[in-house]
Amino acid sequence: MNWDDLRIVAAVSRTNSYSKAARSLHIDETTVSRRLARLESTFGVTLFEAADGRRNPTDVCRAILRQLDSIEQAAEDIERMLHGHDYSLRKLRLTTIAVIAEHYLAPNLPRLLEELPELSLGIDTSDHNADMSRWEADFALRLGRPRQGAFLMRRIGQMGLCMVTGRSPATLLAAYPASLSDTPEMRHLQQVHGLGAVRVETTNLNVIRSVLESGRAVGVIPDFLAKTLDPAAPVEVTPLPEGREIWLLSQPHLRNDSLARHISDWCANLFS
C-alpha cells in the first residue's frame, strides 16, 4: 500500500473535493482521481460518493479515517523532527471560537507549554467549524452540547450572557448572521428588539463589543466581555437568564493518552 494514496484519501475527506485536495497536496486533479481509482480497485471498495458537487466519504472510508489521521499526524511529527532536529514535539489540534481562544486560552498557554515541553498545540479559530468526525481536530471547545458524534464529550462550564443597550435614542442592532438565529443570544435579542433591521451582522464578538461600547447600538455579548466595557460607556448592561454551556470534545482514541488528558484537564480548569 502506498502512503501517498492514503494522504490523498485524507485530503479528499477533509475538503470533499478532488480539486481542493489536489491543491492542498500540490498535485493535479487527474493524479488524485487515478490514485483513488487504483486504491478502490485493489481492495474492491468505494471510498467516496459524488453528491451535490461534493465527494462524500462512504462508510468504508469513514471507518479508516481515525487510523489515517494517526498516520498523517505521525508523519508530520517525524518531518518536523527531521527538519528542525527537535525530537520531542508532538502536535495536537484544538478548535474553538476566537473569543474563547483570546480571553481564556491565550493568557494561559505559556504556562501549559512550560508544563508540557513536548507539546505543539495548533489552535483553529476560523469560522469553518472543524469536523471532529473527520478528524480535523483532536479537541474542540463548543458552545452547547453536540447533537451527535462518536467523540468524548464533557461539560466544563457555563458562559453567561448580557444584553448591552446604548443610551442613544437611535440604537443600531448588532447581531449574528441569520444562520445563528436559534442561539440563546439571538432569541433574547429578537424577543426584545426583533431582528428586522440588523445594521451590524458578524460572528466576531469583539467587533460586536466595540460597536456596543459606542453607546449607539444594542446586542448580546458574553458576560466576561461585558465586564471589559469602558465604565464610562453610555450603555445599560442587563444579565440574561439563559447562558451557553461550554463543552469539551475530544477524539476517542485519546481517552488514555496522558498528554491529551493533561490538555483536557487544563481546558476544564479554565472554566471551573
From TrEMBL:
Entry keyword annotation includes Transcription regulation: yes
Domain of life: Bacteria
Domain (HTH lysR-type): residue spans on this chain: 1-58
InterPro entries for this protein: LTTR, LysR_HTH_N, LysR_subst-bd, WH-like_DNA-bd_sf, WH_DNA-bd_sf
Sorted UniProt keywords: DNA-binding, Transcription, Transcription regulation
Keyword flag Hydrolase: no
Gene Ontology molecular-function annotations: DNA binding; DNA-binding transcription factor activity
Protein family: Belongs to the LysR transcriptional regulatory family.
Protein known as: LysR family transcriptional regulator
Species this protein is from: Paracoccus siganidrum
Organism taxonomic ancestry: Bacteria, Pseudomonadati, Pseudomonadota, Alphaproteobacteria, Rhodobacterales
